[in-house]
Amino acid sequence: MSSPQSSQAGHGPDHDHDHDHDDPRALRAEALEAILIERGLVDPARIDDVLDYFENQLGPLHGARLVARAWTDPEFRDELLRDGTTAMESMGLGGPQVDHLVVVENADAVHNVVVCTLCSCYPWGLLGLPPAWYKSFAYRARIVREPRAVLAEMGCAVPDDVEIRVWDSSAEVRYLVLPQRPADTDHLGADELAAVVTRDHMIGVMR
After folding, report:
1. Is 121 a catalytic site residue?
2. pLDDT (tens digit, 9 = 90+) per residue, 149-160?
3. Is 120 part of the annotated catalytic residue set?
4. 176-201: per-residue pLDDT in tens?
5. pTM above the 0.90 mark?
6. Ramachandran angles phi, psi of 181, nearest 5°
7. Residue 156 annotated as catalytic
8. Cβ of 154: how many Cβ atoms within 10 Å?
9. Are 75 and 127 contacting, i.e. CB atoms less than 8 angstroms apart?
10. 25: domain CATH number?
11. Distance CA 14, CA 177 (A)
């Protein structure tokens, strides 16, 4: 398993697809899509169906179910932290880009955040499509150098006495953050708890 990068201080057309217009790869993909549609080689409705599958059917509800199960089942939580892939598969979950899943847990003294510094490796099968900001060069470069500042800009203020661990995903390993269970939720069941878990919690840009 890769070691995290830690920091104690200082250290974001007619399809409404979520393209990152600052990313040359996204622009090329958009241009290719337009050409394929114009030549009748691709059905725009089919593209929308695929995107809907990733954004709404595949995740992030699956990841939220995983988190809620960990919050309500201590034995499952231990298994999830020990072997994320096996625990995930025991719930019938999986899918694209999650062949090897490592789950890292937030605690009072530790906050975890995930990035892919080389490209945009991301557990699609649990979280759906990655947001544009996750793929942006600014996030990929700055979250490693100054995670506390970047998180604060994203509305996630991490106290100075809390260690920040930055986990760099790769083609071999995908990371998912297990956030702390919110206070005063002992009366909620797994389905209700899953409803309060967001994609941003599981990336680590929300506490």
Report:
1. yes
2. 999 999 999 999
3. yes
4. 999 999 999 999 999 999 999 999 99
5. no
6. -70, 130
7. no
8. 17
9. no
10. 3.90.330.10
11. 35
